[in-house]
Amino acid sequence: MQLSPLGLAEKKMPGTYRMIHHLSFPEGSSINDNIPQDKCSVQYASIHDAIELIKTVGRKSFCAKTDISSAFRIINIKESQYKLFGFMWEGKYYYDKNLQMGCSSSCQIFENFSTAIEWIAKNKALIPNIVHILDDFMIVDKTEDGYRWLTSDQLHLFTDASGTYGYGALFGSQWFLGKWDTKWQKQNIAFLELYPIVLAVEIWGHRFENQCIYFHTDNIALVSVINKQTSKDAFIMFLIRRLVLHCLRNNVNFKAKHIYGSKNVLADALSRQQVQKFHRLAPWADTVPKPVPNLPDLPSYRNP
């Protein structure tokens, strides 16, 4: 079995890493040195291909992006080649059974696989406007209505905030509530309404993983902010960044949806710390709330 060194490369998300099998070592007699060059070259789609696709669909086209998770690792290699991809770890010998980062032919092999996926999408799934680079795919259509945003009936989050009392959130039968301190009470209501949504994603994010969810809030202005993921308010952006980061980590797709205050009675009761009223209206809810952390320190910067 031939052994090659291992290495780690940090990914874009802090604290996550990609293992690299250094198959170009030792120089002159490495695994990569013995792979023919024609097996290593690959031609990718370019930005111009994406631009032409958008131009073909026309103005106000809708673009969606998706990717294959752990792309190389879903491709198996031949059993007869296991012995070529050995490594040592803590005094023991191992070999890799999947396509690896560090092998000079990996990109061509995976590009052939993803090209087949694109062909299937075009010819079987009837998605004509699609282009890819390795594991990243872009789909273009005339309007967003051309795609379905899938959600489960169970994945609906209801939240509310009271400027005087506090905040509350309800997800299924689980719920939490908390009180503002004097500093938080001085913040604008949109900021306060956003906080329980962000906190809910941090508490229940593992249950939202790889799914779609609606955030129901009675603040119309906040609906727009969440769906656009931007605001001129620096304090709101402080929370929006936290929201987006946690959703990216758990692969959560979300949309905010307005709910009339008169229908948001459960979350409203929680935000006003009216636990008895909440249980009277929702006898099916858990007896005790989920614990919540202390309020974080507010950002030190000021809004313009």
Give short descriptive properties of this protein.
single chain; about 300 residues; alpha+beta; Nucleotidyltransferase, domain 5; 2 domains; 5-stranded mixed β-sheet; 3-stranded antiparallel β-sheet; elongated
Provide a compact summary of the structure.
It comes from Mytilus coruscus (Sea mussel). The protein is of the alpha+beta class. Helix content is 30%, strand content 21%.
How would you portray this structure in words?
The chain is α+β, with helices and mostly antiparallel strands and 304 residues long. It has two domains: 6-146, no CATH class; 156-281, 2-Layer Sandwich (Nucleotidyltransferase, domain 5), CATH 3.30.420. Helix content is 30%, strand content 21%. It has eight helices and twelve strands. The protein has helices at 47-57, 106-123, 182-185, 189-208, 220-228, 234-249, 265-271, 275-281, and strands at 6-10, 17-21, 62-67, 86-89, 92-95, 130-133, 136-141, 156-161, 166-171, 174-179, 212-217, 253-258. The strands form four sheets. A five-stranded mixed β-sheet has the order 10-9-8-11-12, sandwiched between helices. Helix 4 (189-208) runs parallel beside helix 6 and helix 7 (265-271) runs antiparallel to helix 8. It is elongated and about 75 Å long. The N and C termini lie far apart (64 Å). The mean pLDDT is 92.
